[in-house]
Design a protein that fits this description.
mainly alpha; 0% strand; globular
Length: 207
């Protein structure tokens, strides 16, 4: 084989390898953008946890989707939704006197609510958080914040902010279509909306 043919062959192999690497990198970029849209703030958190390694973050989040993407959340009966809103209102009213206890109860309430909606059991916090992040990436950070604040050394203001952030996930879980769709066709009922209005300035509460 002549030297010219060898050179041509090597160049062709180089072009093929370059094209393969380009398409592989492009594929990873597209996948990463899809994950970022799905997970929202959770995507940046995963990248930070892996010291800026986006490939590692993509692998972690892809594994979460594979484990929990097929989960079908269950809507709550209206009676259960009303009870959950009432319980949150009570712990908000007690925040001024017992901020730490109120945050701990908010953490536990969210865990029970998520389990009732079909997510992993409350006793499996990390697995429950992982599943919630797949379906509610924009709101799950509030759950992490209130869990961390309730189980660590946090100031009253940090506890208040954590509870406010956690309420976003609380509301979105309650907003799932209830079983009686004939009476409640869309969105939270009036009890849920009332609880949301009182979130920032509930009577008798500092939350």
């Amino acid at each position: 084989m002549s030297t010219v043919l060898i050179i041509v062959g090597l160049v062709a192999v180089g072009v093929i390898l370059a094209a393969a690497l380009f398409h592989a990198g492009r594929g990873r970029g597209v996948r990463g953008q899809g994950l970022k849209r799905r997970f929202g703030p959770e995507y940046d958190l995963a990248v930070a946890r892996h010291d800026g390694d986006r490939r590692a973050a993509d692998r972690e989040l892809t594994e979460r989707v594979e484990r929990h993407g097929g989960l079908k959340p269950k809507p709550l009966p209206n009676e259960a939704r009303v009870q959950y809103v009432a319980q949150w209102d009570v712990l908000q009213k007690h925040f001024v006197d017992s901020p730490g206890r109120s945050a701990a109860e908010a953490d536990q309430l969210l865990a029970r609510l998520a389990a009732d909606c079909g997510y992993p059991e409350a006793t499996r916090y990390e697995e429950q958080l992982s599943a919630l992040s797949v379906h509610h990436g924009e709101q799950v950070g509030g759950y992490r914040r209130v869990h961390s604040a309730a189980n660590g050394q946090a100031s009253t203001e940090e506890l208040r902010e954590a509870m406010v952030a956690a309420r976003a996930l609380f509301d979105v879980l309650l907003a799932a279509r209830p079983e009686d769709t004939r009476k409640h066709k869309a969105g939270p009922d009036r009890h849920t909306r009332r609880g949301h209005r009182h979130l920032l300035h509930p009577k008798g509460s500092g939350v």
